[in-house]
Amino acid sequence: MKKARLPDGSHVAGRQNLRLLVQLRWIAVLGQVLAIAVAMAGFSLALPLFDMALVVVLLVVYNCFSQWRLKWHLPVSQIELFLALLVDVMALTAQLYLSGGATNPFIFLYLLQVALAAVLLRRRTTWMMAGATSAAFAGLVLTRHHGYTLPLDLGGGLDSPFVLGMLVCFTLNAALLAAFITRITHNVRTRDARLAALRQRASEEEHIVHMGLLASGAAHELGTPLATLDVILGDWAHAPAVAADPELGQDVRDMQAQVQRCKTILSGILMSAGEVRGEALTRTTVTAFLDGLVAQWRQAHPSARLKYSRRIDSDTVVIADQGLRQMVFNVLNNALEASPTLQQLTAVLDSGRLTLEVRDQGPGFVQDVLRSLGKPYRSTKGQPGRGLGLFLSHQVARSLSGTLSASNLPEGGACVTIRFPLSALTPEDADEPVE
């Protein structure tokens, strides 16, 4: 059987965050090209075009490498994200040095790098990024910069290159922070949700292991007294007093049948726990498996009124899975308890997916059970330790790469639906005929 696996949450979030930095860097490249063109064509500023173009080309080369790196299915570390942001800071510092230094209004783009670091990185590396941008700012102030010095004309309105640059820088900071930090936050929340799902699954699987050990131990312990009862009943069956009393003889035979049934149930528990060695998996067909399952359940519950229908056009060779059998039994048992007068099982095979639907005419599920479907000990019977039937059924459905859902019917009653791909029960040699 194939088990679904969740990808690691931090791995996915790290790759998504690096992809966002790549996208942001393409925007930065486009913005630098436009800013250089507007400064030279619109304001006739004598900028060192060759040097600034070289910085843009190097940034493009690094971004192409980063985009190629994303094709490697490797985790993205905090150091890698820090180095990516540091490259952006170095490129921004070089462009500022070539176009006015600290007098360039785009110097406030350093704040964007610090804000991204605060979201993406841990505390230590965030402070390292804050120190790097502060050092770059101080270096631009203290170092004799290359090229044109922008006039600090604050009263010229939008005709002033400095005022216009500040407006564009503020707009860029606001827009990029709103867009990218929102997406980064979504990535972080998705990662946390995945990690929470993994922790929940690990807890549930540990719970199942404990129950499996308990069931296996109980099966071993009950084997001895059942064998003793079987021997004693066999002796009684041949006793003269029992042979002379037909009614008493029938009672003994009924007790023998029930003991054999108990031994069969215990054997099934041990088989499900993997403790029965040397027995080959039973090959059958999907229709024979379902028909036999229903016949076995009806035999165990002679008073039940189960309506059974299946719509399966083409029969398929499958493995008689004990977990699936027990899952359907659990759901049918719940339907019988809720609605002793009528139960309904419908099996449909469509596009390689098998759907089993169990309906009853009982009072239906309470909303708390529907909201916590798949959690252990969620029962409306008011008895300690109950509420494991649907939980175990949910785990079996998930182990088959399927789902188990429950709902209340508009006309009254409840419906439990089990869906899974039939390939989860299909053996590798499915083309061979069933003996």
UniProtKB/TrEMBL annotation:
<keyword id="KW-0067">ATP-binding</keyword>
<keyword id="KW-0547">Nucleotide-binding</keyword>
<keyword id="KW-0472">Membrane</keyword>
<feature type="domain" description="Histidine kinase">
    <location>
        <begin position="217"/>
        <end position="424"/>
    </location>
</feature>
<feature type="transmembrane region" description="Helical">
    <location>
        <begin position="162"/>
        <end position="181"/>
    </location>
</feature>
<dbReference type="InterPro" id="IPR003594">
    <property type="entry name" value="HATPase_dom"/>
</dbReference>
<dbReference type="Pfam" id="PF02518">
    <property type="entry name" value="HATPase_c"/>
</dbReference>
<feature type="transmembrane region" description="Helical">
    <location>
        <begin position="126"/>
        <end position="142"/>
    </location>
</feature>
<keyword id="KW-0808">Transferase</keyword>
<keyword id="KW-0597">Phosphoprotein</keyword>
<protein>
    <recommendedName>
        <fullName>histidine kinase</fullName>
        <ecNumber>2.7.13.3</ecNumber>
    </recommendedName>
</protein>
<keyword id="KW-0812">Transmembrane</keyword>
<dbReference type="InterPro" id="IPR003661">
    <property type="entry name" value="HisK_dim/P_dom"/>
</dbReference>
<dbReference type="InterPro" id="IPR005467">
    <property type="entry name" value="His_kinase_dom"/>
</dbReference>
<feature type="transmembrane region" description="Helical">
    <location>
        <begin position="104"/>
        <end position="121"/>
    </location>
</feature>
<keyword id="KW-1133">Transmembrane helix</keyword>
<dbReference type="InterPro" id="IPR036097">
    <property type="entry name" value="HisK_dim/P_sf"/>
</dbReference>
<keyword id="KW-0418">Kinase</keyword>
<feature type="transmembrane region" description="Helical">
    <location>
        <begin position="77"/>
        <end position="98"/>
    </location>
</feature>
<dbReference type="Pfam" id="PF25323">
    <property type="entry name" value="6TM_PilS"/>
</dbReference>
<dbReference type="InterPro" id="IPR050980">
    <property type="entry name" value="2C_sensor_his_kinase"/>
</dbReference>
<keyword id="KW-1003">Cell membrane</keyword>
<dbReference type="InterPro" id="IPR036890">
    <property type="entry name" value="HATPase_C_sf"/>
</dbReference>
<dbReference type="InterPro" id="IPR004358">
    <property type="entry name" value="Sig_transdc_His_kin-like_C"/>
</dbReference>
<feature type="transmembrane region" description="Helical">
    <location>
        <begin position="45"/>
        <end position="65"/>
    </location>
</feature>
<feature type="transmembrane region" description="Helical">
    <location>
        <begin position="20"/>
        <end position="39"/>
    </location>
</feature>
<dbReference type="GO" id="GO:0005524">
    <property type="term" value="F:ATP binding"/>
</dbReference>
